[in-house]
C-alpha cells in the first residue's frame, strides 16, 4: 500500500508544475491545431478584419488574469463577467472561438482548452494577414474566475509612461510593448476612442492636418463610425503602422505618443525602417504575452463550452 501511495504522489506532483510546450496536443488531439486553423481560414476568407478582432481578444484576455480565457465567460445573475467591462465592449470573435471549440469537442472531448484556442486562432490569423508564422507553446488550462472588477486595461488616452508600467507589471518590456502595439497595423478605432483629438478651432498639433480633417468629416456622421489605425494598408500585417505614426498619422493618442515619447520613439523608428525586425520581434513578443500567468497541469479546467464554467 505504501508503494502505491508514493507512486501516485510522484505521478500527480509534476502536473501542477507542467510547462507549456509546442505540440502539447500531438498525442491527445493530433488534429487540434489544424482544426483551429481551418475555422480561422474560413472566417478570414469572408472577413479580413477577424485578425484584428482576435489580436484584441487575446490581449484583453491575457492582460487581466493571465491567458486563461476568462474573457469568454458569460455573465450570470450571480456574477458580472469580464466581457461586460467597458474596455471589452468592442471585443468580438467569440463566435469563432465557439465554432472551433464545438469542432474540437467532437474530435477530442474535454481535451483542448479555450485559452489555447484563442492563442492558436490569433497566431493563424496573423499569418493569414501577411504577418510572421511562428510556433506557439500550448497546454494552457481555462480559468475558474471572470469578474468585471478585475478589468483595468490602459485606454487609448493613457500616457505612455502609465501604459509602460502596466505592461512591465506583466513582465513585458517597453520594446516588447511597442512591438505589440504594431498589431494596430490591422485594427480600426471608432470615433468615440479618438474624437477628443478632433477640433476645427484647435486641432491636436500632433495629428497630421489632412488626417484631422478627414476624421472630423467621418465623425460628424451618425452613429460611431470607425477608421483604420493604419490608413495605408489596413488589412496587411506589416510595419506600415510605425511609418504612419512617424508621419503624425496616428489615429489614437497612445499610438501617436509612441512616436513622440523619449522612451519609445527609438523603437518606433527601428520598426519603421526594418519590417523584418518588426515581424521577428512581434512573433517573440506575442508568444511571451501568451504565457502571462497561465494555468497548467491540474490547475483550472478544460471547459466543455467556452462561455460557461464546467461547474455551472
Automatic annotation (TrEMBL):
Keywords: Calcium, Disulfide bond, Heme, Hydrogen peroxide, Iron, Metal-binding, Oxidoreductase, Peroxidase, Secreted, Signal. The record marks 56 as: Transition state stabilizer. It is an enzyme of class 1 (oxidoreductase). One of its GO terms (cellular component) is extracellular region. It catalyses: 2 a phenolic donor + H2O2 = 2 a phenolic radical donor + 2 H2O. Substrate binds at residue 154. Its EC number is 1.11.1.7. CDD domains: secretory_peroxidase. Its main location: secreted. The keyword Heme applies. InterPro entries: Haem_peroxidase (IPR002016), Haem_peroxidase_sf (IPR010255), Peroxidase_pln (IPR000823), Peroxidases_AS (IPR019794), Secretory_peroxidase (IPR033905). One of its GO terms (biological process) is response to oxidative stress. The keyword NADP does not apply. Ca(2+) 2 binds at residues 185, 230, 238. It is found in: Secreted. Residues 19-310 form the Plant heme peroxidase family profile domain. Ca(2+) 1 binds at residues 61, 64, 66, 68, 70, 82. Disulfide bonds join 29-108, 62-67, 114-306, 191-219. SUPFAM superfamilies: Heme-dependent peroxidases. Binds 1 heme b (iron(II)-protoporphyrin IX) group per subunit. Heme b binds at residue 184. Removal of H(2)O(2), oxidation of toxic reductants, biosynthesis and degradation of lignin, suberization, auxin catabolism, response to environmental stresses such as wounding, pathogen attack and oxidative stress. These functions might be dependent on each isozyme/isoform in each plant tissue. PANTHER family: PEROXIDASE, PTHR31517. This is Peroxidase. The gene is LOC100777946.
Amino acid at each position: 500500500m505504501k508503494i502505491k501511495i508514493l507512486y501516485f504522489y510522484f505521478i500527480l506532483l509534476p502536473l501542477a508544475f507542467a510547462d507549456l510546450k509546442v505540440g502539447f496536443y500531438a498525442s491527445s488531439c493530433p488534429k487540434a491545431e489544424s482544426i483551429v486553423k481551418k475555422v480561422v481560414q474560413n472566417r478570414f476568407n469572408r472577413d479580413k478584419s477577424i485578425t484584428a478582432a482576435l489580436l484584441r481578444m487575446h490581449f484583453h484576455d491575457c492582460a487581466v488574469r493571465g491567458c486563461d480565457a476568462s474573457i469568454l465567460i458569460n455573465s450570470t445573475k450571480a456574477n458580472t463577467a469580464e466581457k461586460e467591462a467597458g474596455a471589452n465592449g468592442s471585443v468580438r470573435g467569440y463566435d469563432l472561438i465557439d465554432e472551433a471549440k464545438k469542432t474540437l469537442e467532437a474530435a477530442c472531448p474535454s481535451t483542448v482548452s479555450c485559452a489555447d484556442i484563442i492563442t492558436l486562432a490569433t497566431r493563424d490569423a496573423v499569418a493569414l494577414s501577411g504577418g510572421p508564422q511562428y510556433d506557439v507553446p500550448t497546454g494552457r488550462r481555462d480559468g475558474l474566475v471572470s469578474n468585471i472588477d478585475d478589468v483595468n486595461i490602459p485606454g487609448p488616452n493613457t500616457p505612455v509612461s502609465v501604459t509602460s508600467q502596466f505592461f512591465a507589471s506583466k513582465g513585458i518590456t517597453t520594446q516588447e510593448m511597442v512591438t505589440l502595439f504594431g498589431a494596430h497595423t490591422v485594427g480600426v478605432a471608432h470615433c468615440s476612442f479618438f474624437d477628443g483629438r478632433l477640433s476645427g478651432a484647435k486641432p491636436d498639433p500632433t495629428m497630421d492636418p489632412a488626417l484631422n480633417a478627414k476624421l472630423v468629416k467621418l465623425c460628424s456622421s451618425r452613429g460611431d463610425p470607425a477608421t483604420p489605425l493604419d490608413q495605408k494598408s489596413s488589412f496587411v500585417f506589416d510595419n506600415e503602422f510605425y511609418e504612419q505614426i512617424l508621419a503624425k498619422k496616428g489615429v489614437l493618442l497612445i499610438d501617436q505618443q509612441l512616436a513622440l515619447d523619449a522612451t519609445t520613439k527609438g523603437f518606433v523608428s527601428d520598426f519603421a525602417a526594418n519590417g523584418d525586425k518588426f515581424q521577428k520581434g512581434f512573433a517573440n513578443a506575442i508568444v511571451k504575452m501568451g504565457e502571462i500567468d497561465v494555468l497548467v497541469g491540474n490547475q483550472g479546467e478544460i471547459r466543455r463550452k467556452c462561455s460557461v464554467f464546467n461547474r455551472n
